[in-house]
Amino acid sequence: MSSWTLQQSTNEHLAGWNRPQVIKPEGDGEVLEVSMGPHHPSTHGVFRMDVKLDGEKVIGLKPVFGYLHRNHEQLGEKLSYLAIMPYTDRLDYFCSLSNNWGYAMAVEKLAGLEVPERADHLRVILAELTRFQNHASWIGFLAQEMGASGTPLMYAFREREKILDLFEELTGSRMMCNYMRFGGCRVDPTAEWLSETRKVVQGLHKFVDEFENLLTGNEILMSRTQGVGVLSHDLAVNASVSGPMARASGVNYDIRKVDHYGIYDRFNFRVPLGEHGDIYDRYMVRVLEIRESLSILEQALKSVPGGPILDPKAKSRGIRPKAGEAYGRIEAPKGELGFYLISDGAGSPYRYRIRPPSFINLTVLEDMCLGHNVADAILILGSVDIVLGEVDR
Amino acid sequence: MAQNLDQIFVLLTGWMVSYLPEWLRPYGVAVLGVVGVLAVYVTLFALTTWFERKGLGRMQNRYGPNRCGPFGLFQPVADGIKALTKEDLVPRSADQVVHFLAPLVLLIVICMGLAILPVGRNMVLVDMDAGLLFFFALGASTELSVFMAGWSSRNKFSLLGAMRAIAQMISYEVPLLLSAISAVMIAGTLSLPKIVEAQAGFSGILPHWYVFTPWGFAGAVIFGIAAKAETNRCPFDLPEGESELVAGYFTEYSGFKFAIFFIAEYLGMFSISSVSVTLFFGGWGAPLSFLTFIPSWIWFFAKVLTIIFVFIWVRATLPRLRQDQLMNFAWKFLLPLSLINLGVTALWRFMGDGWQRWIVCAAIVIVSYIVLGLWGMRRQHVAPRKYSYAD
Amino acid sequence: MAIDQELKIEMGKQGVVVTTLQELYNWGRKSSVWPMQFGLACCAIEMIATTMARYDLARFGAEVFRPSPRQADLMIISGTVTKKMAPQVVRLYNQMGEPRYVIAMGACAISGGPFKQGYNVLKGIDRYIPVDVHIPGCPPRPEALLQAFITLQNKIQAQPLTGPNRPRHLDAEAQGEFPVPVQGEHDLEPTSNPGVWTVPVVIR
Amino acid sequence: MKTIEEIQAAIEAAVPGGEVTIVMNPSPAAQHSLLVGAGKAVAVAKFLRDDAELALDFCSNVTGVDWLDREIAEKVKVTKTVTKTVDGVEQQVEETVEETVKRAVPGYLECVYHLYSVAKKHGPVVIRMRTANRSDMVELPSLTPIWRGAEFQEREVFDLYGIVFTGHPDLRRILMWDEFKDHPMRKDYVLPDDFEYEPTPHDDVLKRAEAHRADVAQEGAAQ
């Protein structure tokens, strides 16, 4: 292998509209360079930001990744298709079931498998429950980063535990569910589980109301988040920002609506959009989104049909798709989660690639933070909703 | 009997001192007083850390510490033992002397502030004529030690924390002083026991506390907010700013020095709550006329603990402000409001008794609060929003 | 130092608490273990869940998560330590004041776990720093972390303050600072700290 | 949305000399892709983004793929002059024989872009670029100036595969540390770790488990 001299980072030579602007320090130009992370209470794990400060104003910010680079992609290329499934749990460890679905869908595309009705319903139910607990915890973490001593986080985790109990009862694990299979799901839920889920979903409505009463109208929260970290519509699209973050910037793009994957066509739900693209919009879009999730959950739970949960033609163990490639993507809670698979006919993929939403959403972190305070930079990072397992893979 | 119980500590001191020779007695009184006050406040500190952890836990649906002793009451003892025996680390490049001095300076200054607090009838260590002035002078010098800590650590987070602390504490000193002055204007003295005496007496069963007047209520609120900022408590805990600056100015402190910062923070909280109790809540006076049989010092500490509870409650509820918002709040909201409040106090003084002054003063306070508040919110461009859905 | 246990229990019944300096010191240490607010990967979420309302680590006096290593006593290695992160973990450990404890939480922290075959994954943090308690699981449930915490408390309680088995911080000759590995061209250098970890002899 | 052939025709009309060829995908997913020559790749990408009908403004996924040097066995018809004995007379006869010829195909590194349109809500259009070989001609033009979303992903491809993107604003290693020299996602990368001394060898565990089972069986029999 040959080696190259690395080009040093310069933004000036490429004066495109979609590059971060360059801010010069005021006054005598003394710049304080602070490396926030990899150990920092608010970087959601082992993320690092190299921040240049003029006073408290951020005039430069470079994200540094890789502190949790666990080689998912290379491991995937050594493992069988089925053995990759538990690894997808550990990508975005808040939303293992969404990741399962994304991967299962990519393999189904690659191998041409069908999913039975019942399994499709279950997938929707589990993915929306996952979205709910992810967004609720995210709101808690955002308040935590604002310095709210963890009270909102405690309330969010109280509800999260209820949802995790459901997951555990169905799949056997709280966090690492490993539930989806190619062409369906692994375990058939009992009628009791479904009625228990209905009960929990009923209770979640009250929780969202209570949570919003606590937070949405709070003046400190509003003044901390409104007008901070603005991301324009055009930059969001150009920088491939996806998920709630893009929708907060007014990008009308929800893969559930665009790709019509699963059975999302059958449910009535709306896609909330923000106008300003600031942190408050990201917060509100998520709050409204979990309300829509609850409505999807209620519709799906009403109409779970009987029947098998696994495509009888599908074999999960020892699956060997024909040579070819497939890109499957879903609307994960954090954005577009894609899996790109190249098969050469062997038992393990030739190339296994994850398109991580939170990693790509971080592209615009510098643009959003420039000119703001350190405290705002922390909030803006929090508003992106990153999970390091997925960012670094 | 009630009289004796009320004065029990005074009598006790007198009895113990009576065994000393005549020329030693003033010193005896001083030593006993200092030891007594320190012991009480340090016990209160231990109790409050426990109370805070339990209270915070209860507000968050959990138990809080409950393994050490009954209800976890010995938790502070365990923390104390650990903090005392923990290794003391000093960064290699730190300014060793200043790094060592900073917590000491803070503790000494704050302990000195405890001396002038009237904790009960006839129970004050030093009855200064200008006690309040002395207190604020000491309060101003805590900033120095915070800055010493932040600067000497040679840590960027500490430095940022120290800068924030200086800016914040200097800014909030102004509304703190201005709101205290209105009480001084009415009482006509800077001596804390005399301010308490000025609030003695009852109309019917209600006491004559300053907080029950329009200017006093506004003053108490401003004083309370500024006090939170002075003691770096949430929502003004920016100098520590755990989620932003790791641990702010004491990031590099460990072991007992860190414990001293911890103690000093709590003692500062006590002393400033004590002063606010003295200025606006009638000091050691009973809240209702038929409750005067309960000793004065019990009332004093009950009031202080109530205010501490409000501190804890606010901590469990509110997120933190940002630096510029903090400054805006101090200079553009609290400062004008406290200046207006000074005018209202003067008006109150010169309008004489009668119901008119109640209406006029209350109207001015309320209108200025609403106008300033709306103006501030408008300038911040902060409002709830309506959201639309895609097709 | 030695107290007759039976006599002690008897006196306890009479309302007289007898203790030794060692017991008091160990009790203080074990009841006030402040963990560092330091999450690495998946297990960090379970660590957070442990501090939340349902499991409530605060009951043991450990809810004071300090973000600064100077003020923390316990480092919970909650997740995969990658080779890029390992030097920082060792440095953080060096920055903690004695007495300090380490809990290796989860399969990854113990041995690399499911990611062991990865090129950037350290095969267990005990290659560089001494670990007090290992918790298996991927991730361990919050109950497992509580169990580990109680195990650590029992371990502290049982430590004699003198003699050859005394804790490291009371041993003047014990190593205080652990060498931080360097990120080399292909791998960490050295790949383990021989003072802490030796290559296990495999008998086949 | 246009079919892949129409897109190819549109590109060739708009960008002359774009060297666009279609790579068919035989799997049921049928996501066919366009192989774009490195020379005009930026122009092609700009066309794909700005064309009113395609409007592929969203570069979702950027991937590197490593294709090793391989040997292709091909059946080739060869005409030879063979000396044969026909009817007792030696003659020179021309004969066509099928032979298997082995041919070494140089490997290459590939970069795959998945494009979607947010404005028109269609996709994916897959474009790929290939390097000349795996060792020294590993330069490809960066498409970050067209789609900002490719910035970190191209850095990642550079880090893990070693494809050098010319025109990238900030090409540094992203996941591995700066001192690292290898490109670990390449198929011929050798792990630095020696798993030989790892504890719990599997055979040993199995043997012990069997012994244990035998013990339990014996005990059961004894009782």
By helix and strand content of chain C, what is the structural category? alpha/beta
C-alpha termini separation of chain D = 76 Å
Name the shape of chain C in a single word.
globular
Radius of gyration of chain D, Cα only, in angstroms?
Answer: 28 Å
CATH class of chain C: Alpha Beta
Counting DSSP E segments of at least 2 residues, the number of strands of chain C comes to: 5
Unreliable spans of chain C are none
Write down the Rg of chain C: 19 Å
| Largest beta-sheet details of chain C | 3 strands, parallel
Report the average pLDDT across residues of chain C.
Answer: 84
Strand content of chain C: 5-15%
Query: What number of domains of chain C?
Result: 1
Largest interface: A-D, 59 and 51 residues
Which percent bin holds the helix content of chain D? 10-25%
Instruction: Provide the residue-averaged pLDDT of chain D.
Output: 82
* Strand arrangement in the largest pleated sheet of chain C: 1-2-3
Task: Say what the CATH topology of chain C is.
Answer: Rossmann fold
CATH architecture annotation name of the largest domain in chain D: 2-Layer Sandwich
Can you give keywords for this protein?
heterotetramer, B: 391 residues, mainly alpha, two-stranded antiparallel sheet, 14 helices, 3 strands, C: 204 residues, alpha/beta, Rossmann fold, three-stranded parallel beta sheet, 6 helices, 5 strands, globular
Describe the protein in words.
- The complex is a heterotetramer of chains A (393), B (391), C (204) and D (223).
- Chain A is α+β, with helices and mostly antiparallel strands and 393 residues long.
- Chain A has one domain: Cytochrome-c3 Hydrogenase, chain B (Orthogonal Bundle).
- Chain A has 15 helices and nine strands.
- Chain A is globular.
- Chain B contains 14 helices and three strands.
- Chain B is an all-alpha fold and 391 residues long.
- Chain B has one domain (91-379).
- A two-stranded antiparallel sheet of chain B has the order 1-2.
- Chain B has helices spanning 2-6, 8-17, 25-59, 75-85, 96-114, 131-152, 156-187, 192-198, 214-230, 242-245, 255-280, 296-317, 323-351, 355-380, and strands at residues 202-203, 206-207, 388-390.
- Chain C has a single domain (17-159), classed as Rossmann fold (3-Layer(aba) Sandwich).
- Chain C contains six helices and five strands.
- Chain C has helices at 5-13, 21-31, 42-51, 86-95, 106-111, 142-157; strands at 74-78, 101-105, 133-135, 182-183, 188-189.
- Chain C has a three-stranded parallel sheet. A two-stranded antiparallel sheet of chain C has the order 4-5.
- Chain C is globular, with a radius of gyration of 19 Å.
- Chain D folds into three domains: 4-67 and 108-166, NADH:ubiquinone oxidoreductase Nqo5 subunit (Beta Polymerase, domain 2, 2-Layer Sandwich); 71-103, no CATH class; 191-223.
- In chain D, the strands form three sheets. A five-stranded mixed sheet of chain D has the order 1-2-7-6-3.
- Chain D is flat.
- Chains A and D meet through helix 3, helix 8, strand 7, strand 8 and strand 9 of A and strand 3 and helix 3 of D.
- Strand 6 of chain A pairs antiparallel with strand 3 of chain B.
